[in-house]
Amino acid sequence: MSWEISHGNMSDRSLREEEIWYQFTWFFYKSKKTQTYKFGLIKALIENLYNTDQNLQLTYDQISYAFTKVYWNLVIRHGLKQGKQNSSVAGAIIEAQVTRNLPVNLSFDQLKPQDQLSIMEKTSPAMKRYVFGALYSDFSGILYGFDRRSRMEYFEFHPDAHVFLLKYQRLITDLVNYHLAKMIEQYNPVTKDFLLEKVESVAQRESLQPYRDILISRFENNCFYCSKSLGRLGRQVHVDHFIPWSLVQSDNIWNLVLSCRECNLNKKDKVPDDSYLTRILERNESLKSEKILIQEDQSLYNYRPEKLELLYKYSDQNGFEERWAP
Ligand SMILES: [Zn+2]
User: Which long-range contacts (CB under 8 A, 24 or more apart) does 104-109 make?
Assistant: First the structure.
């Protein structure tokens, strides 16, 4: 298990920004998260960007202070659960708050230093144990190097990652907060009315029926992917987003194809193989040649093949690098 890693060397290569963005994208959309810990650690690291020594090192106390502050706010002040079960860190904070009878309406900064210390004594071991190795692995060592074993303790930013975080601090913080809030929403039933949910649902899917009819009435009698005849399959004809909906978040006819049920369900959120890109580009040329369709469909009017090619190319950077074929 990656969280069990007790130490890891920092990558000694120099890093391009693109590579760091890629790793962040992977982290946000692909990495496994059963607790909110990794988000908490990134927030703690960002808060400490300006506190590093000349070797870009931080002490575990510096990180622990910021990390505990994040959880005090979420767990004590707002009473939010962080996972299916209460995490070790949340449990430790709740215990300390109850035992020392600390006021729940104060921020962590406002607590007395001796109270802060006693809480950190409980949270720090859990933080060290569960988070550093996991986040280190998610970033393949390009974010930091660390050793959490007691006699060799150190934490050190990769110089390029440090510059990157300074440069895009605000953007990364927003992204972390967004994904953190989304995760917390899952574990806190009252959050159905959370603003974030409402903000996100702007891009709700519309019915694809009209597109289905247009495509069927034209030429598409076969599954775009496996070529199986869709002849009389009726309701079994699926409309598939060539570039997954979770990436484009809109329904444009130039990104829609007809497919059989199996292909549609199999493909899910994946981007089709290269050969299908050529096919859909050709298909779109023929759609676009129909003047009547262009008048009806604004998205087709603005369609250029380069648009779809770019979207296809950038799907990698957005975490859709896996290619699919039936
Ligand atoms: Zn098929």
Answer: 104/76, 104/77, 105/77, 107/69, 107/72, 107/73, 107/77, 108/68, 108/69, 108/72, 108/73, 109/69
d(CA 8, CA 145): 5
Residue 142 · residue 11 · CB < 8 Å = yes
Between the CA of 263 and the centroid of ligand 1 the distance, in Å, is 4
Question: Whole-angstrom Cα distance, residue 256 to residue 28?
Answer: 27
238 CA → ligand 1 middle, Å: 9
Model pLDDT for residues 252-283, shown as the tens digit of each residue:
889 999 999 999 999 998 999 999 999 999 99
Domain boundaries, the chain: 2-200, 206-324
**Ligand 1 centre distance from Cα of residue 267 (Å):** 10
Name the CA radius of gyration of the chain, rounded.
25
Tell how far the Cα of 299 is from the centroid of ligand 1, in angstroms.
26
